[in-house]
Design a protein that fits this description.
This protein is α+β, with helices and mostly antiparallel strands. It contains 2 helices and 5 strands. The chain has a 3-stranded antiparallel sheet with strand order 3-4-5, with no helix packed on it. It has a two-stranded parallel sheet with strand order 1-2.
Length: 91
């Protein structure tokens, strides 16, 4: 439904939730084709790593580590081409 409304940026939260494997592939193809053809930006939150790497040209993985005494929060940013050439850095 979100893709039916014109926008400059699309925010999509877990599009593969509750879908079986075949539906995930179909859904990811539709989303990717739409975003690429419309030349718009999309921020997609996805917990299925395979679907996330298929959809992304850049992705961010937030790794949160909270220790009891220090409350350290660590964020790791992965950049590059998913599955081809990727580098992990701090933001």
């Amino acid at each position: 439904m979100a893709l039916g409304k014109p926008a400059d940026v699309y925010l999509i939260d877990e599009p593969s939730a509750y879908l079986d494997a075949e539906q995930r592939v179909t859904t990811s193809r539709i989303i990717k084709r739409f975003i690429m053809n419309s030349k718009k930006a999309a921020f997609i939150v996805e917990h299925d790593f395979i679907m996330a790497t298929y959809l992304a040209d850049k992705y961010y993985i937030i790794d949160i580590l909270i220790q009891k005494k220090t409350n350290i929060i660590r964020v790791i940013v992965y950049e590059g081409e998913p599955g081809i050439n990727c580098v992990a850095n701090s933001p």
